[in-house]
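#onboarding

Welcome to the new folks! Below is a worked example of what a typical request in this channel looks like: someone posts a single protein sequence, and someone else replies with the predicted structure as tokens. Don't worry about understanding the tokens yet, we'll cover that in week two.

Example request:
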Amino acid sequence: MKAIILARVSDKNQDSNEAQLSRMNVYVEGKGLDKWKVFKIKESSTKGERKQFTEIIEIIKQSKETLALVTDTVDRLQRSFRESVVLDDLRKEGKVELHFYRENLVINQKSNSSELMRWDIAVMFARNYVLQLSDNLKRKQGKMREDGEITSAPPIGYRSIYNDNPLRMRRIDVVPDEKAHYIVMIYEEYAKGDISVQTLADKMYELGFRSKIGGKVNQAMIFKILNDPFYYGFAYSRTHKLLYAHKYQTIISKELFDKCQEVMERHNKVPTKYASKPFIFRGLIVCGKCGGVVGGQLQKGRYAYYSCSGFKNCERVYVPEKDLLGQVYEVLDSIKLSDERIEEITEGLRQIGNNENKFYKSNLKQLKAEFDVYDARIKKMYEDRLDGRITDEMYDNLLREYKGKQSELLEQMKGHSDADEQFYISANTVLNLAKRAKEIFMSSEVNEKRQLLGFLLSNCVLNGKKLEFSLRSPFNLMALEPDTLTMRKGRDSNSRYRFRYSSFQDCRLQPLGHPSLARHSVLASVSLFSIKNS
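Example response:
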């Protein structure tokens, strides 16, 4: 069988491709494979377009024979589930055989459910490491907001002050800069009510006010300044749509800010916010007769009922929320994994943990090298200033830029360290949490319950008072019980099923859709269970 060897690093500064190729060459020779093509890829597996990966996929699709795609580890091929659907289709067609050297795992057309689950969980843990980096950053930014610190660059009229330690550099303050008096002037002039934004922009430009990059002041820039609460003491988080008090020096009063808002003739009425009870099944169910959305409402102030929205004059049938939950509880009670299956998957995850540790060390080394580059630039730049090759102003601007870059790199290094510590969760714990699905569901908040239902169920349809839905894989495999379920003919080993409930003991099965994508989303839910209970 012809073999395609794939070695990947996520950054051009890394130098681990040759080490990967050395191991895989020995592996290919030992397996009796014919080394046909070698790809040394330098691209991220989670960001942007994967052009070289797409090229390999096209080669496999055009091949008239089965090709072996050999990689060092699962995470060298992918760190998300988006590639799994394509690879799984090619596997089923007999186009490709996936070889993962370190996991000692081969995925082909004859692979059983245990092998496929090992592949899925390997991808899940690879993706989980990347997500941990994002979670750590979010937690740090949340703590910064609690302390009144900003998480991004300050607006025009302010500058950041950093400490003098290049190895532990961080922002220690934000202070008004040489443009602050222009900001005050903009507010005071506009508050008079006799000048337009465009006229004010032209006037400020004539007085010497420039944008951050030295460009001309325009109308949009003035609007942005007039609507920024930072100048009177509050920062705005776009991600969380949150306004919070910051600890830095203000340059205008709240009264002046409000006066400018009045002049802009904004809407005088306060927008009303609809504060309804968050229903568990909101947005998850459609009507089986008309296809309209099934919505929830309260009766007697506390009892939740669901019914069709009345689309196309459809007759409304009200179903208590507790009846729908009863059907879900029966499914959650049925989810099972055998001890043998847990032990088999656990062994595979031990190998995955070792691979993640190597990924962590490689990235940490790269970040440290980048930090040292900026450190060397700062030292060289200082000598250039002493020798008169650059001006003091140029030195100050470059120093702020390089210090800012170093601060970002230090945060990334800390994020990698925290993610590495949090990655090592016991595989047995994660898998056994799947059997505690009902307990976790019942103890969750309404929004968390909705999220868990999204992982567990799909294609939810309300026919009369009966709920029909697809149970996503692998929960369908965990829930199958020969004594209570009747399978239709023509089902393959990876099918999903539709459950029509009057009770869990009385349900029929019907294959639905692509199984691989469903399996992936549910494995993500197991990760969510582990985070909630860790």
